[in-house]
Automatic annotation (TrEMBL):
This is ATP phosphoribosyltransferase. The keyword DNA-binding does not apply. It catalyses: 1-(5-phospho-beta-D-ribosyl)-ATP + diphosphate = 5-phospho-alpha-D-ribose 1-diphosphate + ATP. Its EC number is 2.4.2.17. Catalyzes the condensation of ATP and 5-phosphoribose 1-diphosphate to form N'-(5'-phosphoribosyl)-ATP (PR-ATP). Has a crucial role in the pathway because the rate of histidine biosynthesis seems to be controlled primarily by regulation of HisG enzymatic activity. It holds the Pfam family HisG. Belongs to the ATP phosphoribosyltransferase family. Short subfamily.
């Protein structure tokens, strides 16, 4: 069986992903020209590379089109319900670090925890005539964290596809859920992370689609072992 690995074709994870595979002994080259979306591993006819964006990789792992992928844990958990049942996080790769966080305006002086935010949400309609709004592109993670982990039900998610941190200042939402790495975008937008508001500490991972035919496949085991050994 040929094993397909999805690797980022662009963006911040591209170079590090190929480098980690090279350290594991798999030298990746594009088939055809540099802009090709297929690649191969030198000396291996049993492994194929599919170059995709980081978010496409999490989708393709979910539907089983690729066997493995290198992508952010946040994208996998956001894209997939019951992620741990459907994929295996084989290795954390040590790059692409980003935290998915709940952040509120700095001037909300009395709001430091999710419990404080729950109180605000409960009073919001009485005070403002509408629900608390959250700007995010992380719908699933937000709902799990607010409703599942913290029992907060009174909010409305406002989809944000970019410049999420600007939403409170522009009035399009009250608070945000987004990723942060250095924290400078949050600071520049006068937002603070709640003390227990880190939803997920994400980084790039080697992720495997759980497929029955992987059991006992020596190439599957070899890839996992080699990548772990390269870290
Ligand atoms: N400062 C950061 N900003 C955005 N993403 C980051 C940051 N640091 C690490 N990441 C991680 O990088 C991944 C997204 O990578 P990238 O933005 O390159 O994807 P992409 O190629 O733009 O995907 P798409 O175009 O399909 O959205 C996510 O897993 C995210 O957690
Ligand atoms: O904590 P920081 O280091 O400030 O990083 C966080 C910011 O970086 C990302 O945006 P980016 O402009 O990189 O682009 P993207 O959202 O299009 O990937 C992300 O969406 C945050 O806005």
């Amino acid at each position: 069986m040929t094993i397909t690995i999805g690797l980022p074709s662009k963006g911040r994870m591209k170079e590090d992903s190929s480098a980690v595979l090279a350290r594991a002994g798999f030298t990746v080259t594009a088939v055809g020209n540099d802009r090709s979306y297929r690649g191969r591993v030198e000396g291996r006819d049993d492994i194929e590379i599919a170059f995709l964006s980081a978010s496409e990789i999490s989708r393709e792992i979910a539907n089983g089109t690729v066997d493995f992928g290198v992508t952010g844990e946040d994208l996998v958990r956001e894209g997939l319900a019951e992620a741990d049942a459907r994929v295996e996080f084989c290795a954390r790769l040590g790059f692409g670090h980003a935290d998915v966080v709940v952040a509120v305006p700095e001037i909300w002086l009395d709001v430091d925890t999710m419990a404080d935010l729950g109180d605000v949400a409960a009073d919001f309609r009485a005070r403002h005539g509408r629900r608390l709004t959250i700007a995010t592109k992380y719908w699933r993670l937000t709902q799990q964290f607010f409703s599942g982990n913290h029992g907060i039900q009174l909010y409305r998610i406002v989809e944000s596809l970019g410049a999420t941190e600007g939403a409170p200042a522009s009035g399009s939402a009250d608070i945000i859920v987004d990723i942060t790495s250095t924290g400078s975008t949050l600071t520049a937008n006068h937002l603070k992370i709640l003390s227990d508001g880190v939803i997920l500490k994400s980084e790039a991972c080697l992720v495997r689609a759980r497929k029955a035919e992987h059991a006992g496949d020596p190439v599957v085991a070899e890839i996992i072992q080699a990548v772990r050994g390269a870290l």
